[in-house]
Amino acid sequence: MGAEFESWGRVVRHPRTKAPASGFSRDVPQGFLAFGNGRSYGDSCHNDRGRLIAMRPGAAISAFDPETGILTADAGVLLSQILALVMPHGFFLEVTPGTAQVTLGGAIANDVHGKNHHHRGTFGGSVLSFVLLGSDGARRTCSPDSHTPLFEASIGGMGLTGIIETATIRLMKVPSANVRQTAFRFESIDGYFDAIDEIDAAHEYSVAWIDQLARGPRLGRGVLMAGDHAEDGGAARAPSAPRLSVPVAPPVNLLNRLTLKAFNGLYYGRAPAQPATKIVPWASYFHPLDAISGWNRLYGPRGLFQHQSVYPAANARRTTIALIECAQNHGAASFLTVLKRFGDFASPGLMSFPRPGFTLTLDFANSGEATLKMLDALDDIVLEAGGALNPYKDQRMSPEMFAASFPQWRQMEAMRDPAVMSDFWRRTAMVLARDEDLAHRSEQAAHA
User: Fold this and answer.
1) Are 106 and 217 contained in the same domain?
2) Which among 2, 212, 272, 303 is most buried, taking Cβ atoms within 10 Å?
3) How many angstroms separate the CA atoms of 104 and 56, rounded?
């Protein structure tokens, strides 16, 4: 049962209590939480004092119109299942995250983003409606025009407003799911920022891989991969089973400085020095790591932390440098270092993470206190830049950092179903609420 309800970071692993959706009520003191496929990195998908409701068993797609691209499915359906159905009809997700092994409900609850935020915004923009089950037993069909506050709170609300049972989304028509990719390497972070305005204006998708270990004049070097659905891309293959597997965690972290230095040098060296264009399979562009089942186990038995931040464009160049240098100065090595732009799209979600600027993602093996100290230092840089952290990639940010990232947390708490709780919300928002209540009582007592 422990493995069944693990988060992707695997830092905390033990058996967790599950319950059927039929038992969802206000009778359990520590509450319930819907659990999709465990692709959140931290504790936003856990409720260790309460119960988890498994959403995947029996989940199915109930309707798809190949003329309009409108699809309705149970919340536990994986995005890979949706793609397998719609791609032969010339449709694709308007927004797809870095893995297709995310449930539909999870994509909504986390308002996930992809490589085309600068053109399409977040996943929530594709959501037409969903049915939300409350602990009062009521089922509410939420949309931009019906139960609107609940609709907005649920998109990006990390499952805290109730249980999303089914959802209807809009897909986009594409000539092919496969991608015409233009890739080139840049010698330093300046190369990325000097090129990105023109790249993003010309292409639907863009993402940059960064060699986090490069120093000096090569600091921030990497490979930029822009893409568009190919007019001559041909038929796309349906999602396939992973070609490789990491069935068990090795006794040590295999993604260490030594192995990553070799990998980074090879990956960077193989990338074209000048822009080169070719057709690539959709899966390798959007979801390359889905080809390796259990790749997160490569970080070893203690799991991993992911740090994803967003910060304003005005200071993005120096903030990116500061974050990379901070990790280097702490002796840390990040395997998956990704840099993308977020556009000026307002999400329909109350608590959505993306906002205008740039987002940097870093992965670190869990080395205990040393890793936590470094992550706090990274937080300080983000905070000083006026940025924010991604809650569904987190399992250790302070309540204060959460409040700075999401000052609207009180509105979210007001919309939370009283029978729903997560470990993330318990250690951030509930601590903030408790401290505010204590301060208020102290103030009242002082004036009594």
Assistant:
1) no
2) 212
3) 10
Closest CA to 371 of 353, 395, 387, 389: 395
135 and 153 both lie in a single domain: yes
Tokens standing for 65? Answer: 């119109």
Tell me, yes or no, whether 419 lies in a domain.
Answer: no
| pLDDT score, position 438 | 83
**Does the residue 276 lie in any domain?**
yes
> Which of 314, 327, 340 is closest to 207 using CA atoms?
340
Q: For residue 188, which of 155, 211, 161 has the smallest C-alpha distance?
A: 211
- First-to-last alpha carbon distance for the chain, in angstroms, is 52
Interatomic CA distance for residues 159 and 168, integer angstroms: 17
Helix (H) or strand (E) holding 81: helix 79-86
The mean pLDDT value for 364-389 works out to: 98
One domain, residues 272 and 341: yes
330 within domain boundaries: yes
The CATH number covering residue 137 comes to 3.30.465.10
Residue 63: count of CB within 10 angstroms of its CB: 10
Q: Find the domain containing 344 and state its range.
A: 179-404
Q: How far apart are CA 279 and CA 234, in angstroms?
A: 10
Separation of alpha carbons 3 and 14, rounded Å? 8
**147 and 225 share a domain?**
no
Query: Which whole-number Å values give the CA distances from 420 to 17, 45, 129, 196, 363, in the listed order?
Result: 14, 11, 21, 41, 29
Amino acid at 380: D
Tell me the pLDDT tens digit for each residue of 239-292. Answer: 888 889 999 999 999 999 999 999 999 999 999 999 999 999 999 999 999 999
Beta-strand runs (E) in 55-178: 61-65, 70-74, 91-93, 127-133, 139-142, 163-173
Give 3's pLDDT tier (boundaries 50, 70, 90). low
Kindly state the tokens that stand for 349.
């979600």
Task: Identify whether residues 96 and 200 lie together within a single domain.
Answer: no
The residues with which 226 forms a beta bridge, in sequence order, are 182, 206
Question: Given the DSSP bridges, would you call strands 205-210 and 222-229 parallel, antiparallel or unpaired?
Answer: antiparallel
User: Do 233 and 102 lie in a common domain?
Assistant: no
Q: In this structure, are 160 and 118 located in the same domain?
A: yes
Does residue 339 fall inside a structural domain? yes
Exposure string over 111-121, b if 16+ CB within 10 A, otherwise e:
bbbbbbbbbbb
What is the CATH classification number for the domain harbouring 204?
3.30.70.2520
Give the per-residue pLDDT at 238.
Answer: 85
Signed CA dihedral, 11, 102, 122, 135: sign only: negative
Each residue's pLDDT tens digit, 94-110:
999 999 999 999 999 99
Mean pLDDT of 123-131: 98
Please tell me whether residues 93 and 202 are part of one structural domain.
Answer: no
